[in-house]
Amino acid sequence: MNPTSKLSMTPIHIGVIMDGNGRWAQKRGLARTQGHIEGLKAGKRIAKAASDMGVPYVTFYVFSTENWKRAADEVGFIMGLARQYLRAEFAFSRENNIRVRYTGDLSGLPPDVAQDIIDTCVESADFTGTQVVLAINYGGRDEIVRSVRRALAEEHEISGETISAHLDNPDIPDPDLVIRTAGEKRMSNFLLWESAYAEFYFSEKLWPDWTADDLSAAIEDFRKRERRFGGINGIGNRGQVFR
Ligand code: IPE
Ligand code: IPE
Ligand code: MG
Questions:
Q1: Ligand 2 proximity of 67 Cβ (cutoff 6 Å)
Q2: In 3-state terms, what secondary structure has residue 145?
């Protein structure tokens, strides 16, 4: 086996752009908000599947820095879901040994939602299984700005290494695989810095319809990829850029 295929065998970190909740609901003549309820169920399903498959890190794109542009009632509904479910799902985390973390700007969220996120992270900090990262009020550009500000505050020279080292979760490896559902083929400001050498998997299926089998299919597809990281035939390859 050459080093290239070995590198691409198992994704350590999967990023998921969970898209299509609104369309799922509209197709059924339901309010878009109903799609977010089903999307949350799919999120739990895929978190459980990733945990069962032993994937070490999964980042779910929950709410972007641009999603505030939506109608106030839809934004309010999503924040309400976070309020309602974050604490309530602690039993789910414990049963599956899932550690919850976050990335994003908590200062821009309703304070009680921000506190629920912090509490969930603290309460699950000792769980040793899959780490589920919630990207909430998250933008890739915003995270890079945060990182540069932190690095400057500590009087570091700005370099690729210092930017990587001051991201929201510098210990988490870059995503190997980024999945986007619902047919759109764009990043929409997700993990811009970290996805420099990620493999992308696009699925036509709407997020609320995703099951464990879809995750398996994405991982199978990833396993067939040849990652080169700018090198040739596996020579000089490395799974991390700047780290
Ligand atoms: C993704 O589904 C969830 C969030 C962005 C919060 P959408 O709400 O974007 O669903 P579509 O893309 O409109 O179908
Ligand atoms: C990306 O989906 C954000 C999340 C999944 C949270 P969007 O639906 O907001 O992306 P665009 O607007 O289609 O690019
Ligand atoms: Mg969308």
A1: yes
A2: helix
40-84 per-position pLDDT tens digit: 999 999 999 999 999 999 999 999 999 999 999 999 999 999 999
Domain assignment present for 148: no
pLDDT over 70 percentage in the chain: 92
- pTM surpassing 0.85? yes
Burial of 127 (0-12, 13-18, 19+ CB in 10 A): middle
The candidate with the shortest Cα–Cα distance to 207, out of 70, 27, 7, 51, is 27
* C-alpha–C-alpha distance, residues 237 and 243, integer Å: 13
HSE at residue 137, side-chain half, CA atoms within 13 A, is 15
Q: Is 64 in the pocket of ligand 2 (CB under 6 A)?
A: yes
Domain coverage including residue 17: 6-139+173-242
Determine, yes or no, domain membership for 159: no
Q: Report pLDDT digits (tens) over 162-180.
A: 999 999 999 999 999 999 9
Structure token digits, residue 150:
């932190």
Among the atoms of ligand 2, which is closest to the Cα of residue 188? 14
